[in-house]
Amino acid sequence: MAVYTEVTDDALAEFLELYEIGRLVAFRGIAEGVENSNFSLRTTDGDFILTLYEKRVDPADLPWFLGLMEHLAAKSLPCPLPVRARDGANLNKLAGKIAAITTFLPGIWPRRPAVAHCAPLGEALARLHLAGADYAPTRANALGPEGWRPLFARCAGSADTVQAGLGAALDASLDAILAAWPDNLPRGHIHADLFPDNVFFLDGKISGLIDFYFAATDLYAYDIAVCLNAWCFENDFSFNITKSRALLRGYQSVRPLAEAERATLPVLCQGAAIRFLLTRLYDWINTPDGALVTRKDPLAYWRRLRFHAQARSEGDYGL
Amino acid sequence: MAVYTEVTDDALAEFLELYEIGRLVAFRGIAEGVENSNFSLRTTDGDFILTLYEKRVDPADLPWFLGLMEHLAAKSLPCPLPVRARDGANLNKLAGKIAAITTFLPGIWPRRPAVAHCAPLGEALARLHLAGADYAPTRANALGPEGWRPLFARCAGSADTVQAGLGAALDASLDAILAAWPDNLPRGHIHADLFPDNVFFLDGKISGLIDFYFAATDLYAYDIAVCLNAWCFENDFSFNITKSRALLRGYQSVRPLAEAERATLPVLCQGAAIRFLLTRLYDWINTPDGALVTRKDPLAYWRRLRFHAQARSEGDYGL
Q1: Is the dihedral of CA A141, A143, A148, A151 positive or negative?
Q2: Is A76 left (phi over 0), alpha (psi -120 to 50) or beta?
Q3: Is residue A9 within 8 angstroms of chain B, CB to CB?
Q4: Which among A152, A231, A303, B218 counts the fewest CB atoms within 10 Å?
Q5: Which residues of chain B neighbour A3 with C-beta distances below 8 Å?
Q6: Which of B31, B111, B200 sits opposite A31 (nearest CB)?
Q7: Which of A6, A28, A200, A289 is the best residue to mutate to test the B interface, defined by the most B CB atoms within 10 Å of its own CB?
């Protein structure tokens, strides 16, 4: 469910007056997405996505996100291009929320990621990293390693209600991961949330990378670790090294990894696993029973974390 | 939330092979709708809606619904046209559900119905009634007057948990409505659920009538009564007679009402109010707390029912 805010006809008509994108033809809520309200918008000029930013996004971050998207789109990365209003603004108000119009991207996201998706994904991720390199503004990663301890502190007390012993196990894992965390790897702007539902494919090629609202400035290789977690585990939590190898090779065909990036893959992957584990755990504990949002099981990332904790080297990821 | 069933890429690709509608370009879940899973589907041939029928729709009824839509579309009513597969079938299986592809209709549904919407709505409803007259198959209205007592019996015991005294009040209302129910009015195929979210407008004109999955063979004037309930009350439950007059005049500009239809508007409107009250009451009591569907307040229809119960004649509706 990704329509949290009702947009009235009058408000929409008034909002569209701010833009030079023709007259309204169709307007439907989009079911996908969790954080914001998204609508598909058709005008006499073409197709667009209208996003209303809901409370989880800090308005102060929006210019950075939209600037990054504009920068990447200008470098031919297939990401949504924010449409500027007649006055040049790419953010405006609608129904009491900050809103943006972006271009529509064709394609569908893979419900069942296959090996064939992983090489194009790796290539696209590396292209994203290279294309973003000269986008000057930075954004600290609130959900990066500095954020994990404070986030854990907010849900540690309830961790054992999800699984007996989980609190102590997470505490120990966090200690180990943070102690081993590399701080001298190549850095830049990362997507930080490139899950399958944020990647559109068309005829076997990537046609869209969307949802840049967790993007931040952090380790490139950490972004790869997020993807390894998101794309390379099967439903039974077994790790598919063929997918992982394809993803890493695709990435390296565009941006070869430094020795230190390859060597630290196991701890980077543990960090990525614990990041999603912690936000899921937090949401699990804090989502009211009657809420419209489906809670995602934090233990799916506990299983991933355990895999990465026993990995010894890049070889365990197919390199 | 209107995506209950996940459709995998492979299953979708295989399904689309059954049709001659070009290659897949985009596929997104649609947030609107409650009963079924709906997706917007773009192919190289154009835009379509893909519907997966969920458990509330009886598969045995689907050929009747789709046949009616095909019949109405052939008479230029702006309703979705079911697309036939290469073998001529308009229903096929996808992701374990029965599924249909229909044409895409432009426009947006009015979030705040205004007087200006009501005359076109009335006209369109009358056109729907006339266009359907020579569609031979019939479908009994399971949610028509014969269905109200059995439905009430399934939730009467819990009615007082919604509002003290509601059970006895509904019992008495049902007796009065059923005793006064007219049985000699003009009959034919009715939409039976023409709420604002099922009516698209474009540039002030109706561009789409959708969601025929409550359609049935019943009194034409009862369909008008559903619309009067759905379109003519303000948020404070006051009845807007200007809207009602516009709706009825619009209807009569296409299909003049018989004297008996006009005279029985108050009881028909009570019937329509109690029909939605009962299904909402049933859902209210039977929807689990953690469900993804927003429960609609049954008391909104109790307020409407009280208005109609004090109406004396067609004059109370602006005629």
Answers
A1: positive
A2: left
A3: yes
A4: A303
A5: 31-32
A6: B31
A7: A28
Cβ separation A289–B289 shorter than 8 A: yes
Contacts of residue A306, defined as CB under 8 A and 6 or more positions apart, other chains included, come to: none
- Answer whether B106 sits within 8 Å of A25, measured CB to CB: yes
For chain A, which domains are there?
Answer: 9-103 (3.30.200.20), 115-317 (3.90.1200.10)
The C-alpha atoms of residue B74 and residue B30 are separated, in whole angstroms, by 26
Residues of B in Cβ contact (< 8 Å) with A284: none
Chain B residue with minimum CA distance to A110: B9
Q: Determine whether the interchain pair B28/A32 forms a contact, defined as Cβ–Cβ distance below 8 Å.
A: yes
How many CB atoms are closer than 10 A to CB B124?
Answer: 24
> Residue B20 carries which side chain, given as an amino acid letter?
E
Q: What are phi and psi of B284, to 5 degrees?
A: -60, -45
Sequential pLDDT tens for chain A (319 residues): 456 788 988 899 999 999 999 999 999 999 877 778 999 999 999 999 999 998 888 999 999 999 999 999 999 999 999 999 999 999 999 999 999 999 999 999 999 999 999 999 999 999 999 999 999 999 999 999 999 999 999 999 889 999 999 999 999 999 999 999 998 999 999 999 999 999 999 999 999 999 999 999 999 999 999 999 999 999 999 999 999 999 999 999 999 999 999 999 999 999 999 999 999 999 888 876 555 556 678 999 999 999 999 999 999 999 9
Query: Phi and psi for B125 in degrees, rounded to 5?
Result: -65, -45
- The amino acid present at A239, given as its one-letter code, is F
The residue in chain A having the minimum alpha-carbon distance to the alpha carbon of residue B37 is: A31
| ipTM field | 0.82
- Of B8, B24, B111, which has the smallest distance from its Cβ to A9's Cβ? B111
User: Phi, psi (5° rounding) for residue A209?
Assistant: -120, 120
Tell me the C-alpha distance between A42 and A21, whole Å. Answer: 10
